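Feature request disguised as a bug report, sorry. It would help if multi-protein outputs had a clear separator. Right now it looks like this:
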Amino acid sequence: MRIKKQNIQPKAMISITSTLSIPDSEISFYASRSSGPGGQHVNKTSSKVSLVFNVQDSPSLSDDQKMLIISVIGGRINSKGELHISCEEHRSQFRNKEEAISRFAKILGDALKPVRKRRKTKIPYSAKRKRLDSKKKRAEVKQGRSKPDY
């Protein structure tokens, strides 16, 4: 009995951060007619690519990550919890798909970046002195423009 060899490819993953990768199975792509460059070529081909990712239903994201993403880029997420990204910059569907994926990775990466708290610092004495000196100089200039008191 002969055993047939099957080509089993690993699932493709989109790397967002060093610890987070999103599998391709969670992302949907749609192609449609574009209004971008290409002239008559645009009217005949579906080169515009729309990427759809459901943030709320994603098993790859933890609840904390979902809340952080929604709070940072909530304006880009619709009522169903889907993030839509469209790209129609290039003439080919393939390049638009790559561009949409890179935008997706950048948007999620920026949303998941931790926000550093600002450390309070003192204003240096020299900076205060410089500011006050410039204010005095300006006041003198304006005073010199007025009519003299006799």
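(second protein starts here, but nothing in the output says so)
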Amino acid sequence: MKNYNKVDIRILVGMFLAAFINFNKPFYGTLFLLFFELSILHIIYSNPKLIKQRISTVFNRNQLIAPTAFVLLTTISTLILLMSNASNTQQIYGIIRYFSIIAHIFFTLALSVYFLTQEQNRKIFTPLPASIITVVIFIFIDYHFNPYSVMFSEPNRVIVANNIRHLGYIAMLGCLYCAIKMLQCRIMSKKHLWISIVFSINFSLLIWLGGRGAIVAFIFSFLVSLIVINQNSLDKYKHLTTILALMALSYLISIPLSVFPWNGPNRFMFLSQVHDASINQVSSGRIALWLESISLIIQKPLFGYGPEAHVFETKIGFLQPHNFLLQSLLEFGLLGTAPILLMLYYITKSAITNALTDSTANNLYACGLIIAIISHSFYDGTLYHAPSLLIMCIASSYVLSVTLKRNIPLTNHQIANVAKNET
């Protein structure tokens, strides 16, 4: 950890612990992420050497319109919730989610400014595939001593996520990291061999978990990265052939380890045998969730029902509707959702531009990561649960910092203004 300060170390540790921070209830993961972000903000702003520019001086006014509008509109939705006839429990959970969301915005912007002036972020995403390797070791240990803990989600199991399939969020990102690294490695090199092994472990767990949405999101984001990368067609073909072979090998490895009817190839074969299943059954009940959310959104289209509304307002009672857009519309209405979509559009566009301009491993991975998380969020709670949300915030900060660095004339002008104001 030489030359790494407290912020760098905490970010690396947070990335490494991504597979573990949801705990046996997502609410605890939300609290962990809130205090984690606040601790980093405290370190940054308590040390003038870490961040010499203010957010308002680094970003121009147009870039801050969407975040500012989002903060104001979510505040209005939260105030409406507090003035409604909602229960005290709903109001308390709503307030906690409100402060968590506001923290995400300030954390992402502040970390962008931090990355802009610091050069210690080359290995920022490295801990993600390592996190999954640690998970695999713990799953083997946990199953050996207490096999029912994995099956029945017992709170005393080693892997403390409330839903073990949520590990698929991190596994798909670990696979993507290794795949992009392999695209930039010389085939048959020692580094390529090690990355291939790590990729096989990550992809085997992804198949073992049986999450269809995570697998599709990984493939989609990898294909985008394959198109974006600045590499000749022959090299792309060679790397793609290797990755496809490793995916096939990982699938075979997962077969004897898929000992439950809900996981791995067993799940895919079960679905293929159910010929009379409805669309709702094939989607694991998502259609019912979406239809119920839509019916509620129509009743309060402008400001929604306030933060954390889904679990309290719906009859089904899940924490989230397994669709980011519907959740945002339900909580914050059309007015609050519009700036969220603008922010995601800007971040995605910036990530693609960064990757096209300079196809470094980090630029390519940040681009693929953001596309994977956003695409997966339309089928699951990827932008709701703490582990994937933490990674999304850090990746967005990295993308914004690269965008700011690329805009050299503007950045130099702003830094000069800051120096002038300080004197």
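Even a blank line would do. Unrelated, but nice: Confidence is low (pLDDT under 50) at residues 410-423.
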